[in-house]
Structures are given as structure tokens and as C-alpha cells.
Design goal:
The protein has one helix and twelve strands. 2% of the residues lie in helices and 54% in strands.
Length: 191
């Protein structure tokens, strides 16, 4: 049974289950709003093939030690082992998203980008601990076909889980094309 409670900038998962006749309640929070950040700018890419991608995909993703400060501005985490209560943050650089061509009231050509994501949290045996669909990632209208975009995918509330091995799967969706890709990361929670 899954109950989702939405609270201002956070999405909270209340997950209910039974284990040996005991009733468990686990809360996992995905940080959104100000923490769900994106960097946009007119790109001067050294590799034009990335700029002309037609398949929506992650060019790069990794665990980071703290909130990224911009496109390419992050501190990579040295391992995938976290302490209970640590925030699990993934930095990702998508490519191949589709632009929706728009026109403003003055006839100026604009470009729209809209992305959402689904998240699934399981243990390494596949037992599901949480799931959320259609998490708003970004909706942007720009004068340029922005290329330098990053996702800050944050999972908090790990102190409500037991120590052990887990897997988080983020599934970003380009709403303009319907294309998706998976970011699957295994991590360990220790005391």
C-alpha cells in the first residue's frame, strides 16, 4: 500500500508494509523545488555531436557530495556508501531533449523544454520501498536552444531505512518527445 503526501517543496512517501506481523512505517523524502535545480545557458559545446543528439539520454551521471552549484560544478562523491540520514544526491547531464517551438505575442520565436521524472527505490533484491511518478523537473521557455542542463536528483529521509544495500532508479521523461532514459545507481546505507 502506498500513500503519497505532498507538502510545499517536498514530496513525502509514507510506505506501509508488514514483516513478521509487525507494522512498518517508512518515510522517504525527495527534495524538490529550490533543490531541484537546473542550469541553463546558450551552449558553446566543444563536441557538436552532443548538441545534435536525437536520443534522450544521460551523457554523465554520478553521486555527488553536496548540492551542485551549476552545470559541471559539483564535487564527486568518492564512494556509494552513505550513513543513515545522509542525503543521496545524483548529478546528471542529459542530452537529446526536444525543443517545442513557440511564438510569443510579439511574434518572437521561442523554445520550450519540459521534463518530469519517476523514481523507484528498492533493495538489491528488488523489494520496493518507494515510488513516485511525474515529479516536475523543469518547464522552461527560452530564446535559445539551451544545451547545458543538469539535474540535481536528491533523496532524503534515509534515516528511516535499515542499513543495507539499495538501488534508486530515476526515469527522466522529455515531455516534448515522450522519450525516457534510466539512471540506476546502487548504494549502501551504513550506521
Amino acid at each position: 500500500m502506498l500513500i503519497v503526501i505532498v507538502m510545499e517543496q517536498n514530496i513525502r512517501f509514507i510506505l506501509l508494509g508488514t514483516s513478521a506481523a509487525l507494522f512498518l512505517s517508512t518515510i522517504i523524502t525527495i527534495q524538490q523545488g529550490p533543490r531541484q535545480q537546473f542550469a541553463f545557458g546558450q551552449s558553446q559545446l566543444a563536441n557538436p555531436s552532443v548538441a545534435n543528439e536525437t536520443k534522450f539520454r544521460s551523457v554523465f551521471d554520478t553521486f555527488v557530495s553536496s548540492e551542485p552549484e551549476g552545470y559541471g560544478v559539483y564535487t564527486e562523491r568518492p564512494s556509494n556508501v552513505f550513513k543513515l540520514g545522509d542525503e543521496v544526491i545524483i548529478y546528471s547531464e542529459p542530452a537529446g531533449y526536444t525543443y517545442k517551438t513557440l511564438t510569443d505575442e510579439n511574434g518572437t520565436k521561442l523554445y520550450g523544454m519540459k521534463m518530469t521524472a519517476d523514481m523507484i527505490l528498492t533493495d538489491r533484491n528488488g523489494a520496493e520501498f518507494g515510488r513516485q511518478q511525474d515529479i516536475p523537473m523543469t518547464e522552461l521557455i527560452s530564446h535559445h536552444q539551451n544545451k547545458e542542463l543538469y539535474f540535481d536528483l536528491s533523496l532524503t529521509g534515509t534515516d528511516t531505512l535499515e542499513p543495507g544495500d539499495y538501488m534508486v532508479k530515476w526515469i527522466p521523461t522529455d515531455e516534448n518527445s515522450g522519450q525516457t532514459f534510466d539512471i540506476v545507481k546502487e548504494f549502501t546505507l551504513s550506521q
